[in-house]
Amino acid sequence: MQTRNVTNETTRTDYQAVKQAILDYVEGVYEADPTRIERSVHPDLAKRGFFVNKEGSTESIMSFAQFIDHTKTYNKDGQFPPDAPKEITIYEVLDHTASAKLTAAWGIDYMHLAKYSDRWMIVHVLWQTHPQNRQGQADSFNRVYGEADTPFYYGLNPSEELVKFLDETHPAVGEALDLGSGEGRNSLLLARYGYHVHAIDASSLGMQKLEKYAHAHGLDNITYTVADVRTVQLTPNFYDAIVAATILDHISEAEGKKVAEAMIDALKAGGFVFIEVFTIHDPAASATKKENETISETASFVRHFFEDNELAAWFSTLETIHYEEIMKYDDSHGEPHYHGIARLIARKRPA
């Protein structure tokens, strides 16, 4: 934790009380404990924030009562690891007012606090989701994923539709690529099916968690690369399977098209792709948030929401096995929410 300025009038007690109020705020959310919010946040709270993505920003305004309800459900399933980020920078503490910054899993909060009798309470919060530059996104996912020995943020369950496809079609195993693998739940699935898996992701902590878990469970047929998918050079006609679950939407449209072309070129004849992306029907794609509508806490990382049939068009040179565009309920992380999803399974035709 950093401290910018503590005036001569500030006692150590005040300083510690300001810090504790912010800890109650962030840990109350992580622990789904509204009592910690009630003792650290003023009932007249003014809380305003922005979910930021390539298409623009979605503003969120929350009252004290709404924040209490939000706290009860946001992490009710324990998706945030015990060491989820809570980096506090106290800028200034005076005799009755203070200012500070909090970096948490969901983003960055700027706060004003005031002293009421002997209690410091948060009165204003202005926040936004994590910045979207290339390194910033990798750093943001590192903060979301936590350390190598913490629970998987998105859980260990692989994509259900990928499991179904493998179980029903029994494709020939060989070389597999998990592009934008994150913590690697689909990499683990492919490895268990007998593929030699190449997992690629920009998050070093995601790779560390995957590697540690795989080794602990006897899965030594995975190789790990920390890299930006936009700069990776894929070997032509090399992979029997390529999985890209919500990665083409996390880069720009132009960048995504280049990666898609490289994926097609890297696929062997007879090999398949499994791809999922977020669509314009996702609640986070709208610049205005509807009343009582919940948006994923990591939605700001998405840079391109796909139009209707756009994903199918990008891979039109392949033979489509399955294509759908749906609204999908997701309670695997954060507060339960819906996603607009386009899903494609396609095979490369023989030359």
Quick summary of this structure?
The chain has helices at residues 12-30, 34-40, 64-74, 134-145, 160-169, 185-192, 204-216, 253-266, 310-314; strands at residues 2-6, 41-53, 56-62, 86-93, 97-104, 107-116, 119-128, 175-179, 196-201, 222-226, 239-245, 267-278, 319-330, 337-347. The protein is α/β, with parallel strands linked by helices and 351 residues long. The chain has 2 domains: 2-129, Roll (Nuclear Transport Factor 2, Chain: A); 136-141 and 149-347, 3-Layer(aba) Sandwich (Rossmann fold), CATH 3.40.50.150.
Structure overview:
The protein is α/β, with parallel strands linked by helices. It is 28% helix and 34% strand. The protein has two domains: 2-129, Nuclear Transport Factor 2, Chain: A (Roll), CATH 3.10.450; 136-141 and 149-347, 3-Layer(aba) Sandwich (Rossmann fold), CATH 3.40.50.150. The protein contains nine helices and 14 strands. The strands form two sheets. A seven-stranded mixed sheet has the order 1-4-5-6-7-2-3.
Keywords for this structure?
351 residues; alpha/beta; Nuclear Transport Factor 2, Chain: A; Rossmann fold; 2 domains; 7-stranded mixed sheet; 14 strands; 28% helix; 34% strand; elongated
SSE order and pairing:
Elements: E1 2-6, H1 12-30, H2 34-40, E2 41-53, E3 56-62, H3 64-74, E4 86-93, E5 97-104, E6 107-116, E7 119-128, H4 134-145, H5 160-169, E8 175-179, H6 185-192, E9 196-201, H7 204-216, E10 222-226, E11 239-245, H8 253-266, E12 267-278, H9 310-314, E13 319-330, E14 337-347
Parallel strand pairs: 1-4, 2-7, 8-9, 8-11, 9-10, 11-12
Antiparallel strand pairs: 2-3, 4-5, 5-6, 6-7, 12-14, 13-14
